[in-house]
Design brief:
alpha/beta; Purple Acid Phosphatase, chain A, domain 2; 8-stranded mixed beta sheet; 6-stranded mixed beta sheet; 7 helices; 14 strands; globular
């Protein structure tokens, strides 16, 4: 089984890069399942309902989120009706939505199932706090592995040390743990003993001439003034980033390959094709 994980989609240029790049990658590689991190798809932070549906239509079979999962009201109000959008699993039970799910990889009864789960780190987040991911991971994996040996975890965390420690805990217990949130692709992809593929951060899908997909000048002003400014997205040099993971029949990782796929610059008609979002 070949799993394509699309790194965090940032803003309209990220959605555009996803649309253009995914079709190219599917022509170049046999891909059985597509996961996309969409935590910054709408305006660089959060995911709106219309964008969720649009990304699904473009080919994402699962959309993962992170600390921005509840930023867009129109998504929060409809999370129960959108089973392909996952928020972190280690939130309180009262939180809307689900954090893990079993998905079919095809339409035939014989097609294998795959489990996707999201965990939120505890270091560095101020607006959303998850329960201890190290306590949550063994329980989550035990439950998911009862249904399928193919288990992918998206670990949305700030600190690389926290990610590395969770990787060590997960080694041999699941197919892959993919780090997200930092929006900078790391060069440490590897397969741990026991067949678990890991990478500290899969990167971002969006502008590479930016700071995490956001306009550089606005981020400079944020650091100078202390006033957050995430409303202006960057658009130059779009790129689809992520990882391609191959799994054997037992759910063990055979390979993990970093993806950096450049796409042409956006044109006006590309912006006009994007759906309008509702309440933020």
């Amino acid at each position: 089984m070949r799993i394509l994980y699309i790194a965090e989609i940032v803003g309209k240029v990220g959605i555009y890069a996803f649309k253009k790049g995914l079709s190219d990658l599917k022509q170049e590689n046999p891909i059985d399942f597509v996961i996309a991190c969409a935590d910054g798809a709408t305006g660089g932070n959060g995911l709106g309902r219309n964008h969720a549906g649009f990304l699904r239509k473009l080919g994402a079979q699962v959309l993962t989120t992170g600390e921005c999962c509840f930023y867009k009201k129109d998504l929060v109000e409809n999370l129960a009706k959108i089973p392909y959008v996952l928020r972190p699993d280690n939130l309180n039970r009262e939180a809307p939505g689900i954090g893990s799910r079993i998905f079919k990889t095809g339409t035939k009864p014989s097609d294998p199932k795959i489990a996707i789960g999201v965990l939120l780190g505890q270091s560095g987040f101020q607006r959303l706090h998850g329960n201890n991911p190290f306590s949550a991971l063994p329980v989550l994996l035990e439950r998911l592995r009862q249904e399928t040996p193919y288990v992918i975890i998206d670990f949305h965390a700030e600190a690389s040390a926290e990610k590395g420690t969770l990787f060590a805990l997960a080694a041999g217990r699941c197919s892959a743990v993919i780090g997200s949130h930092n929006r900078v692709q790391t060069a440490d992809e590897r397969i741990l003993p026991g067949g678990t593929a890991v990478i500290t951060d899969a990167g971002r899908t969006g502008s590479t001439e930016s700071v995490g997909g956001v306009n550089k000048e606005k981020r400079i002003q944020e650091y100078l003034t202390g006033i957050p400014e995430w409303t202006k997205e960057a658009v130059d040099k779009p790129e689809l980033q992520g990882v391609l993971i191959e799994l054997d029949g037992a759910g063990k990782a055979c390979s993990i390959e970093r993806i950096r796929h450049k796409v042409p610059d956006m044109l006006l008609q590309d912006v006009q094709e994007e759906p309008q979002e509702g309440i933020a």
